[in-house]
Amino acid sequence: MSAQDEKNKAAASSPIVIVFFVVGLAVSLLVGWSIFPKLLYSQKKQPIDFSHSIHLDAAGDCESCHYFREDGSFSGIPELSNCVECHEEAQGEDPEEIKLIENYIEPNKEIPWLVYSRQPDCVFFSHAAHVNMGELECKTCHGMIGESDHVEIYEENRITGYSRNIWGKSIGGFKSNTWDRMKMDDCAECHDEHGTRQACFVCHK
Ligand code: HEC
Ligand code: HEC
Ligand code: HEC
Ligand code: HEC
Ligand code: HEC
Question: Which residue CA neighbors atom 43 of ligand 2 most closely?
């Protein structure tokens, strides 16, 4: 083969190389950004769709459902009795409200809500320390849940069992808001800024 033939062959194969490169890139982006997260996280639906924005108007403020008890402990997600106050009788015709009444209020069964921010059992967390003493806003750690119109799908990491809200929304590990992730380093980062104690026993039981 002459030098000229070599050149021609290289020129002819280069478009193929480019095609392979582009296809390969597209496949890895697809796997990385859309298939991998689907494999890594299983999706669970909340038992009923609950609109925070409707209820903020109806109930007035967050504290009417999420409050501190006399002993300083945090009520967390309200119990069914809190819903019965207004939903003993249907307030409207929303199918989600009918589900609430038929599946939970009439048989008097607590609603099995999934907690997006649930930490593993070894972690100690107190709302009183953060909200009352630290004067932090709910949004700092939970984002816009308090203003939302619908519940989000709960995503559980198949390997670690963590909620995606803890593990991080971005597969690449990027964080643009304080509420995008709540792993150990994220807790520690804010504790550093506030000069809070960092010993293991502060956060671990
Ligand atoms: C202060 C009164 C009040 C309380 C307390 C209350 N609701 Fe409601 N709820 C309303 C009103 C008003 C509507 C709007 C009814 C309509 O116009 O369809 C509503 C609508 C709903 C709906 C249908 C709309 C939507 O959100 O998707 C669901 C489901 C619902 N409520 C669930 C609950 C649950 C669960 C609780 C307890 C954690 C609760 N509500 C507590 C007043 C209340
Ligand atoms: C009428 C009662 C009611 C009111 C008022 C209310 N919430 Fe809720 N909240 C709920 C219920 C029920 C859930 C469970 C369903 C869900 O996750 O949306 C919940 C869940 C949450 C969660 C999810 C926690 C987690 O990690 O799963 C956050 C955060 C929250 N509420 C913040 C707020 C804030 C902030 C406000 C005020 C702006 C507020 N809520 C007002 C009833 C209420
Ligand atoms: C410093 C971060 C931080 C702040 C501020 C904060 N939370 Fe939380 N919240 C968490 C963490 C972490 C959990 C999970 C705790 C666990 O699993 O033990 C949680 C859990 C919850 C839950 C579910 C609790 C349950 O077990 O049922 C609700 C509801 C909630 N928070 C609402 C609120 C509201 C309302 C505010 C504002 C008044 C608030 N949070 C402020 C970090 C925070
Ligand atoms: C956005 C800031 C912020 C984040 C995020 C945060 N904290 Fe804190 N935390 C504070 C501040 C500020 C205090 C001190 C409150 C005070 O005593 O004035 C505190 C106090 C505490 C305390 C009590 C400390 C003591 O000395 O008794 C514990 C336990 C704790 N945090 C655990 C956690 C855990 C676990 C996480 C992550 C899931 C977390 N925190 C995330 C700001 C934060
Ligand atoms: C500011 C709070 C905080 C402090 C201080 C802290 N941790 Fe953690 N740690 C967490 C949180 C939140 C998690 C769960 C989320 C995660 O895995 O990142 C965790 C998870 C862990 C885990 C993994 C547990 C599991 O079930 O997956 C280990 C191990 C651990 N911590 C060890 C330590 C040790 C050792 C220290 C002291 C050098 C320490 N932690 C200090 C908050 C803290």
Answer: 65
